[in-house]
Fold this sequence. Notes:
The chain is mostly helical. The protein has 13 helices and 2 strands; from the N terminus they run H-E-E-H-H-H-H-H-H-H-H-H-H-H-H. The protein has a two-stranded antiparallel ribbon with strand order 1-2. Helix 5 (140-154) crosses helix 7, helix 6 (157-171) packs across helix 7 (199-231) and helix 8 (235-242) runs antiparallel to helix 9. The model has no long low-confidence stretch (mean pLDDT 83).
Amino acid sequence: MTRYIIRRVLGFIPVLFTITLFTFALMRAIPGGPFDFAGDRSLPPQIVANIEAKYHLDWPLWKQFLSYLIGDDLLGEEGISKGVIRGDLGPSLRYRSQSVNDIVATTFPISAQLGFLSVLLAVLIGIPAGTLAALNQNSWIDYTSTFGAVIFLSIPNLVLAPILIWIFALGLGWFPVAGWGSKPPYLLGFLPQLSQLNWNYISHAIMPVFALGTASAASIARLTRASLLQVIREDYIRTARAKGLRERAVIVIHALKNSLIPVVTILGPLFAALVSGTFVVEQIFGINGMGKHFVQSVGNRDYQVITGLTLLFGVLLVIANLLVDVTYAWLDPRIRYD
């Protein structure tokens, strides 16, 4: 297993390099530039040229990429870029007083907390609901679970989030309309302080987490039901029952564990997507997460921000997929990577 993990980690390098290269090139292929306008007014060409020279945007594309990748000093040029390989994601071209590292440090912990809680809610609802539906096939429990899954899959969070605000924030006054309940400094760089885990934090998190996690819970419930229905008809399940094992042991130890392999497969990309930030939910609830900057940086032509956040998303995705592969071996002892 250790050798497999090392090979996978080494394999991440060309993947992340390709992601960075294509994002870097595609962003610069979009018409327009980051300094074409100052507010609603267009800047004179001479001023635009001076600003672009400051950020080396007048260099050839290959030289800009090398500067972004390894830093200006290794190119023998004067500049502020230290290179992605040394952890410097560059300056923001839109927010002049901030670097991309500053934006990530500010927004990633909030998006990570929102994404983690959403995935946790999806798992805690989806797996039990799918299991109950499969064990009570064609009963009212199955029909109710399936109907609920279809409803929440059909309602996008763009619609669900305002409904939650209208009912529970404006109507009943149970929860705050906007904001997030934790502030820096964070434990391990992204976890809220233990002193902040109070009702204020929970009340701010309930509605955005519910709006973001219910569709994922519905998908997990449907997948768990379909997978478990297939597994409980296998020969080894009948053998386990014939040996006199208790029904709970048969379901939990033998059937459910093997049926979770398809569920774990979608959890990897799902976790990476939710942790990287969801623009709609963050925008509606006024949460300062990465999703807002990710989308706005495209319209602003903020090359460094969109490239840095895309690279961060790629890192989260490959790590999540690695964890999925490792989890496979735990769920199914027949799977070996050595």
